[in-house]
Amino acid sequence: MGWELRDKVVLITGAAQGIGAETARRLDAEGARLVLVDVDGDALDAVASSLGSDRAVTAVADVRDFSAMEGAVAAGIDAHGGIDVVVANAGIASYGSVLAVDPETFRRVIDTNVTGVFHTVRACLPSVVERRGYMLVVSSLAAFGAMPGMAAYNASKAGVEHFANALRLEVKHLGVDVGCAHMSWIDTPLVRDARADLTTFGEAIASMPPPLNRTATVESCGRAFVKAIAGRKRHVYVPGWVGAVAQARNLVNSPVGERDTLKHVAERLPRMDEEVRRLGRSTSERNLG
User: pTM of the full predicted structure?
Assistant: First the structure.
């Protein structure tokens, strides 16, 4: 059953840029009330100021900190009376092979992308249950199609997909629906930063067969997310062909599916590790600190 989005209260993590910010703009245009959460307070305020209404409240919080997320949810409830919808969107990536990636950065990716989703859901869930709402967990095509040099991101997105599956089973009888979003390459800061930092990242995308080598727009992703929220959808695929890849995941991870990737790994992965070494960091500069 679909929803009228006007006056629904939507909490979005990672709301200061990319998919989170675009989804916020589109929901604001639909008349939703917003709780925008991010670690970057200045960028978060800029997004809120750019909206065409005063229906957004902001909260600076790191999703790795459960107490901070409880505070963000409390601020949203104080402002709007409750939470109807959650978009657990905050996420980061690391660079480099398992042999070379900085272990602390690897851990930070897992903490942000997996534990951060749990913290977001856990903090919001009592209000969402009370209002028989909807939760959208943001995964990725990376959940079922691995890329060498991004093991932490691959693992985290597979993890939150199955977290969403378990959550759906737990809360369906309480009137709460749970969706999971899988996107291919989207023109977000995460992808742009990786392209700027690593020539090997761009090479890896370019060497994939169509349509896997194409980058979709943030706008297309925002449209799909808003449609998913309105329809309380179980699955969201951006672009739509990602759904076909999901259905073929066993083939993707078979010797046949891995064949083209393996042609390049022995040459490309050492070059990626050397690029990471020269950078002096295993993640985007914006994710440091």
Answer: 0.97
